[in-house]
Amino acid sequence: MHLVYQFCYWLVLKMSKSVCEMNLRRLRKVLFLRLTKVLSAILVTFVGLQELVHGEESEVISDDSMVLRELPNFDETNVVEVKSPASFFSKYRDRRPTHGLIFSFAQSKILMDNLTTEEGAEEYYYEDLFGDEPVALSEFHLGYKFNFTLGSLHFDVGYGVLEKVESFSGLNRTLEVRKPSIRMGYILDTLFDEPYVAPYAEAAAWKMNIKEANELDSVSYTTDFGFTFSAGLLFQLNWIDPNGAFEGRKNFGLQNTYLDLFITKQTAPVNPDDPDTSTDMAYGAGLRVEF
Q: Which of 37, 175, 183, 193 would disulfide-bridge 164, Cβ 3.0–4.6 Å?
């Protein structure tokens, strides 16, 4: 009876060992297949990322890739397709869309020395009341940009602000100017693959809302249309922070940031009865961002 018991114990132990070995072999096979699939996916992803780093337009990894086919138990249904957004890495001349937005802030120093003011029976020139120092005119513009092979055109609306406080004549005087405008311009931003330097020319039409005040009186009026003509150079600033420029392009569509250096000249209003707001050639600087 004891021998029978030992034999049964041995038989059960042997069968359990065989079953465990079979399950272990099956488990190893399953794990190997799973590991192979994971490694295949990682390899394909790494190849795609390498193309992204070098700024190349990625290619879809084909099913008959020699590298993948050499892997044991390769399953073609697990091929990972990696496509890089080529527009993020291409040069500006190639990646830019046809339509865009442009925003600018600029400041120029102007002197409206032909502007006159009547006080009683007397007529005074600008320099008699406010001196002969140029005053800062700050302007904001937002508009539409159309890109084509030979450069770009933009059409925008703007608003300018000028304020001057002076006691040059013995009285405290204030000059306030508000300058809504519409503007169009041409930018030659395809000279290079990237617009490191982009010359431009612009023309704007505006009306001025002018308020003059002193301690005793004030007067306000709006001029008829006048014009401003400008020319300048845009200097791309993306190189200062390439990673930041890339993130801005990827997340917000920010194509370029520019330093803007320009010359500008303002005409008198078309109505000869309006005060003469014309200026000589003036210089200015600002920033532009393009989306």
A: 175
Secondary structure of the chain in HEC code, one letter for each residue: CHHHHHHHHHHHHHHHHHHHHHHHHHHHHHHHHHHHHHHHHHHHHHHHHHHHHCCCCCCCCCCCCHHHHCCCCCCHHHCCCCCCCHHHHCCHHHHCCCEEEEEEEEEEEECCCCCEEEECCEEEEHHHHHCCCCEEEEEEEEEEEEEECCEEEEEEEEEEEEEEEECCCCCCEEEEEEEEEEEEEEECCCCCCCCCEEEEEEEEEECCEEEEECCCCEEEEECCCEEEEEEEEEEECHHHCHHHHHHHHHHHCCCEEEEEEEEEEECCCCCCCCCCCCCCCEEEEEEEEEC
* Per-residue model confidence as pLDDT tens digits over 50-96: 444 444 333 333 344 444 445 555 555 555 554 445 555 677 878 88
The Cα 274–Cα 221 span in angstroms is 9
- 212 burial (CB, 10 Å; 0-12 / 13-18 / 19+) is buried
pTM of this prediction?
Answer: 0.65
- Contact between 160 and 177 under an 8 Å Cβ cutoff? The reply is yes
